[in-house]
Amino acid sequence: MSNLVEKFRERYARAKSWGAVDVFLSRNEASDLLAHIERLESKNQGWQDCAAIMSRNADFYQGIVRQIGELFGEEARTSDDGSVQEGVLALKVPELVQDLHDTAMSGIDEIQELWVKVERLEAAVRAVKDWDIENFKERGAFVVPQRIRQMIQAATDAEG
């Protein structure tokens, strides 16, 4: 409670003990005033509790951003003018994460392109194996050298 409220209560209690409450305030006015003060203090406490919660939440999420920034090292502590700061610059973190995402996505595109090439090579290997078998049936001999056949076999054995 505030000092003003305490002072009022003390003065009211003294005035009441002297029987001078009516001079200070009427009993109803004093009761109404005390009730109003208590409502205001309760409301004020609610706002203080809300502010404390918001502050803790902000600290929590800022901590997460700083932890992510620390993963980027000096890059997350470097200002636009090139100077290196002691702590993570929170505004740099989304930019760094976006750059990392873009790099990863371009890598995924390259992997997908390579996967298409691998699938084509596997199809070619299967075709060579099929041709080799047909050629053997017709000629009674393998045309593809043994070493290449072994490589093809090793590449396609994982198919099951």
What does this entry look like structurally?
This protein is an all-alpha fold. It folds into two domains: 1-89, no CATH class; 91-160. It has five helices and no strands. Helix 4 (92-139) crosses helix 5. The longest helix has 48 residues, at 92-139. The protein is rod-shaped, with a radius of gyration of 40 Å. The two termini are 79 Å apart.
Number of domains: 2
* Spans of at least 5 consecutive residues with low confidence: none
Mean pLDDT over all positions: 80
Radius of gyration of CA atoms, rounded to a whole number: 40 Å
What is the general shape? rod-shaped
Tell me the span between the first and last alpha carbons: 79 Å
* Largest sheet descriptor: none
Provide a count of the helices. 5
Structural class: mainly alpha
Short description:
The protein is mostly helical and 160 residues long.
Short descriptors:
rod-shaped; mainly alpha; 160 residues; 2 domains
Layout of helices and strands:
Blueprint: H1 3-18, H2 21-24, H3 27-71, H4 92-139, H5 146-156
Helix pairs in contact: 4-5
